[in-house]
Every structure is written in structure tokens, then in C-alpha cells.
């Protein structure tokens, strides 16, 4: 008799990808954000107008073949500024997310794996940070750090890591009682080995979901700070400061393209990224297979 070939079942990552692939909202988010991101990155190659070029003959001009999204009060092209503002918003969001993810993972993992005293001290500090009013804390930090890209990255990074630290700690507290972690400790493995060999691989799903949702949150935070004059300062383009420049009643009523397009880009990007984050969260949830 011929021996039967065992049928290999797909791994957890393959099953997660399969669940994500059948999430219509998540796929819709990918279909929106990928072309948008590529257009933002490559627009200087195919759009001849720069964000701060002034056309005195086309001030407050409506959308046309020359200016797809119209112009603002000094004749700058709205389309170029929306694209350039998207580059700044995505750069701030991605950079601050990477920094906050690194801080959150290290704090949470060290709290879970470094011992009782490290856990107690670290978690009390995290609790202190989380009890601070986020809006007031954000405005105070922004006023201290000043305006610009890197101060904005710094402010958003400092505000975003505590929740991830608590999630990573919760995951690794259960992991540290597993036999393979206890065996590694018994063989003399140090904290760095435990963090990189066991902590990081078992926290990938948390980090991916956090990073995706945090990008959308960081875009909103950057836009809010720029709208209040504490983020990206003019003449640099930002979706937030473009909305701030168009907040007067005359512009809202007579020149709606000056706020409609940056506001629409902001809402579209945040919704698409949130759809992707929700899809990743459901895909990495093992209980989703029971649904």
C-alpha cells in the first residue's frame, strides 16, 4: 500500500492573510491608500507646478485644466499643495509611528521580562503618562517643542507609546511562563536575547495592528496641531494648515475648493488606513476562525 502524504495545514500568518483578503473594507482601504500614496510620492515627476509657485493671474481661481484643484488666495496651486501636504503628513505619521512602536515595545517587553521591580516601576510610569489629559499634554508639548516637522514627530511619538506598552506587557506576561522561555532563562539567556528571540516574534501581530491604526491617528494629530499653528508652519504645505488658511467665512462660502480638497484628502486617507487596521486586527485575531 502506498503511504498517504500528510496534508500540511496553513500556518497562522497564511490564515491571517486569507482572512484579511476576504475583508472587503480592508481591501477597499488598500485600493484607496496605495494609489494615493504613490501619487503623493511621485507627483513632482508628472506635475509641473511646485507647491509655493505663485500665479498672480490666477488668484482664488476655481478648478481648471491648468489647476485641477484651483488656487488659493495668493495664486498657489491647491493640487500641488495637497500632494506636498500629503508627503509631510505621511512622513510625520510614519516616522512618529516607528519611534512610538520602538519605545512602546521596549518598555512593555522590559516590564514583562526584566523582573518584578522593573515591572512595578515601569508600569507606574506608564500609568502616570496615561493619566495626563491627552489634549492638554499635546498642546503643552507642542508649545515647548515649537513648530516644524521634527518637533511634530517628537510630540506625537511621546504621546502614542503607552497603550502599546501595556498591550505588549500583557502578551509577554503570559509568554514568560511558557516552557521554552523558562528553558532559555535556565540556560543563561540574557534580557536582550529574550527580547529579540522570543518577545519580538510573539508581538508582531500587536505591532502591525498598532502601527497601522497609529498612522491614521498621527495624521489626524499632525493636522490638528498644524491647524492650531503648533505643527507644520507655513509656507510649508500641510493638510492642517491649509484648512487653517481657509477657515474664514468668505473662503468657506466663495472658494470651497480651498478647504474641500485638503479636507477630503485627510478624511479619505484616515478612513482608508482605519479600514486596513481594522482588517488586520480581525485577521490576526484567532477567534475570527470561529466566526
Automatic annotation (TrEMBL):
Subcellular location: Cell membrane
Pfam families on file: BPD_transp_1 (PF00528), OppC_N (PF12911)
SUPFAM superfamilies: MetI-like (SSF161098)
Presence of the UniProt keyword Transmembrane in the record: yes
Membrane topology: Multi-pass membrane protein
GO BP terms in the entry: peptide transport; protein transport; transmembrane transport
Classification via InterPro entries: BP-dependent_transpt_permease, MetI-like, MetI-like_sf, OppC_N
CDD domains according to UniProt: TM_PBP2
Segments traversing the membrane: 25-46, 88-114, 135-160, 208-237, 257-277
A GO CC annotation given for this chain: plasma membrane
Family: Belongs to the binding-protein-dependent transport system permease family.
Annotated protein name in UniProt: Peptide/nickel transport system permease protein
Amino acid at each position: 500500500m502506498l503511504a498517504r502524504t500528510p496534508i500540511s495545514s496553513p500556518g497562522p500568518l497564511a490564515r491571517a492573510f486569507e482572512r484579511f483578503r476576504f475583508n472587503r473594507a480592508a481591501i477597499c482601504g488598500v485600493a484607496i491608500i496605495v494609489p494615493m500614496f504613490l501619487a503623493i510620492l511621485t507627483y513632482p515627476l508628472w506635475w509641473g507646478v511646485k507647491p509655493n509657485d505663485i500665479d498672480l493671474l490666477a488668484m482664488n481661481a476655481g478648478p481648471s485644466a491648468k489647476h485641477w484643484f484651483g488656487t488659493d488666495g495668493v495664486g498657489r496651486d491647491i493640487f500641488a499643495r495637497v500632494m506636498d501636504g500629503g508627503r509631510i503628513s505621511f512622513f510625520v505619521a510614519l516616522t512618529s509611528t516607528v519611534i512610538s512602536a520602538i519605545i512602546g515595545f521596549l518598555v512593555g517587553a522590559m516590564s514583562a521580562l526584566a523582573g518584578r521591580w522593573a515591572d512595578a516601576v515601569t508600569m507606574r510610569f506608564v500609568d502616570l503618562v496615561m493619566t495626563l489629559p491627552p489634549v492638554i499634554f499635546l498642546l503643552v508639548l507642542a508649545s515647548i517643542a515649537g513648530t516644524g516637522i521634527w518637533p511634530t514627530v517628537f510630540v506625537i511619538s511621546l504621546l502614542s507609546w503607552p497603550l502599546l506598552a501595556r498591550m505588549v506587557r500583557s502578551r509577554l506576561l503570559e509568554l514568560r511562563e511558557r516552557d521554552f522561555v523558562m528553558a532559555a532563562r535556565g540556560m543563561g539567556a540574557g534580557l536582550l536575547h529574550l527580547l529579540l528571540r522570543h518577545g519580538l516574534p510573539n508581538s508582531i501581530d500587536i505591532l502591525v495592528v498598532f502601527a497601522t491604526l497609529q498612522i491614521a491617528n498621527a495624521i489626524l494629530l499632525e493636522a490638528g496641531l498644524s491647524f492650531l499653528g503648533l505643527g507644520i508652519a507655513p509656507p510649508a504645505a500641510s493638510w492642517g494648515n491649509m484648512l487653517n488658511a481657509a477657515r474664514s467665512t468668505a473662503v468657506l462660502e466663495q472658494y470651497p475648493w480651498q478647504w474641500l480638497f485638503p479636507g477630503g484628502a485627510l478624511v479619505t486617507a484616515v478612513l482608508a488606513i482605519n479600514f486596513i487596521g481594522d482588517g488586520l486586527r480581525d485577521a490576526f485575531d484567532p477567534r475570527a476562525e470561529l466566526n
